[in-house]
Design goal:
Elements: H1 8-14, E1 43-45, E2 51-53, E3 62-67, H2 72-88, E4 94-98, H3 103-112, E5 120-122, H4 127-131, E6 139-143, E7 149-153, H5 157-168
Parallel strand pairs: 3-4, 4-5
Antiparallel strand pairs: 1-2, 3-6, 6-7
Helix pairs in contact: 2-5
């Protein structure tokens, strides 16, 4: 027998498929979806052409990295981003915001520094740079899990790593 047909709700709960409004497998109420703070109410297109909606990051701390493909400082920071992003991806997403350059150069930068697994938003028109009041590269905007901007400015690799680790609770 595949399941207990006398108690179908139990089987669904064991498989993690709960009815709307049902309890979680631990007996508590389902988690409420995170409120989307204004700072994360933006969309864009990744360098790979996929749609990006920052609202999906609500409830997590987030690092926005504003970079340009010709920027030497950005290149040095790219190594740190490539190193720490996989380790903290689920706890503290790092999202690149590529601007001040051509799409082809941006894609070459991502390839050169092995940043393909990191979300990179194409911002050739500078809309996100303006929204976040970024006037130069390379700037990190760090947003805590409640949607408050807790850092806006330059970070070297060591400082970035420390801030991301702290946000992740590591």
């Amino acid at each position: 027998m595949v399941g207990d047909h006398r108690r179908p709700g139990l089987l669904r709960a064991r498989r993690g498929r709960l009815r709307d409004g049902g309890a979680t497998p631990t007996g508590g109420p389902p988690a409420a979806p995170a409120q989307v703070p204004d700072v994360l109410r933006f969309t864009g297109t990744t360098l790979g052409g996929a749609a990006f909606d920052a609202a999906r990051l609500a409830g997590k701390p987030v690092v926005l990295w504003f970079w340009a493909p010709w920027c030497a400082t950005c290149a040095s920071q790219a190594w740190t981003v490539a190193e720490i992003e996989p380790r903290y991806r689920d706890a503290v997403p790092i999202v690149g915001v590529a601007g001040l350059g051509e799409r082809k150069a941006m894609k070459e930068f991502v390839t050169e520094f092995d940043l393909g697994a990191t979300t990179q938003i194409e911002d050739t028109k500078g809309a996100l740079w303006k929204r976040f009041k970024v006037t130069e590269q390379s700037i990190f905007v760090i947003i805590d899990r409640n949607g408050a901007v807790v850092h806006h400015g330059f970070l070297d690799g060591e400082a970035l790593t420390a801030k991301v680790a702290a946000l992740a609770g590591a």
